[in-house]
Amino acid sequence: MTSLLVFFVLVLIGIAVWQLTKIFDLTQVGEATDNSGVATDKDNSVNGYLMFGFLGFIYIFTIYSLIAWGDFVLGTPASEHGVEVDNLMEISMWLIFFVQTITQFLLHYYAFKYRGKEGQKALYFADNNKLEAIWTIIPVIVLAVLILYGLYTWNQIMYYDDEEDVMYVELYAKQFGWEARYAGEDNTLGKANVRYIEGINTTGVDLEDPNAQDDKVVTELHLPKGKKVVFKIRSQDVLHSAYMPHFRAQMNCVPGMVTQFAFVPTVTTAEMRQNEAIIAKVDKINKIRANKSKDLVAKGESALDPYTFDYLLLCNKICGRSHYNMQMKIVVDTPSDFNKWLADKQTVSAQWKEANTPAAEEIKEEIIETIIDTTKVVAQVEK
Ligand SMILES: [Cu+2]
């Protein structure tokens, strides 16, 4: 509401300034001013130089952006296919950079060179087949090569062989968080459906399905280095997008269907923390945090924890109010560490049994009774 008001105030100020200049013009009646509205040589010159100035602005701002924000790029890819994605990106960006530098120069330079002059007539071609053929064929060839290269790379990334030694992991998206399910010893994910969601079974695993008996559900994703992981991706509610930037992986999560993405992690979390660019980035973040902490401590609040690098799975689709915070930590371990970590986790069927055994029910009832008794006592004391 405030921004709408500010907008209206700005519009009104604009109109006021416009009307004032009109009044100012009217007071100049009788003086030798040109009110014809036709551009003079001076007007054209000013516009020509402004065009040239704008070209300088584009170039200087581009260089400034590269220097000021160049280190925000993600750096070393942490997956096998990530190298391919980065190559594709680099070739596309260099090409765009090269073409834009030349075309922007030509556009602005000629706008300056052929600016309007009294008595000068514009020379133009009504038609030139040779010229049109050149500027059609060259972009067609360049774009076709880029698109074919992109398609080839995409197919290489998306293809995986069922016979291959792969590991299946399910990513389950919901407003606003992630869960991951490991397929267990049989390497087959049990059936799941949103209708089975009940109690601790938060991902809707079909607990009757024999394949689901060894499935394990976790809230922190661990991946073994060097193993191809096939992600089967589901969503509970709305469209989400599973985005793992360091692995150059992204796939939509669509309610009612299973999408997939597969990759081989190549750098463990511990190794990535030793990466020079990551160390510099972490230092930068911690400097900002230290500065903020000073202010917080001065206000009597507690200081911020220092940041350590971790891979993340983020949601990359605006899916609701807390979308910005929809993330899950990813840890890439050595295969032996990974196996140890996974072995410690309980299967979802065991968790279910534990939560629904008569003993657990009894304890639950006892707790409820105690709560009721306590409330009665409190009520009596209050009387
Ligand atoms: Cu989301």
Automatic annotation (TrEMBL):
SUPFAM superfamilies named among the record's database cross-references: Cupredoxins, Cytochrome c oxidase subunit II-like, transmembrane region
Cytochrome oxidase subunit II copper A binding domain: residues covered: 164-344
Membrane-crossing residue ranges in chain numbering: 49-70, 91-112, 132-152
Cofactor-binding details, from the entry: Binds a copper A center.
Cell location: Cell membrane; Membrane
Gene3D superfamilies found in the cross-reference section: 1.10.287.90, Cupredoxins - blue copper proteins
Keywords: Copper, Electron transport, Membrane, Metal-binding, Respiratory chain, Translocase, Transmembrane, Transmembrane helix, Transport
Function noted in UniProt: Subunits I and II form the functional core of the enzyme complex. Electrons originating in cytochrome c are transferred via heme a and Cu(A) to the binuclear center formed by heme a3 and Cu(B).
PANTHER family: CYTOCHROME C OXIDASE SUBUNIT 2 (PTHR22888:SF9), CYTOCHROME C OXIDASE, SUBUNIT II (PTHR22888)
UniProt name for this protein: Cytochrome c oxidase subunit 2
Organism (species): Flavobacterium ponti
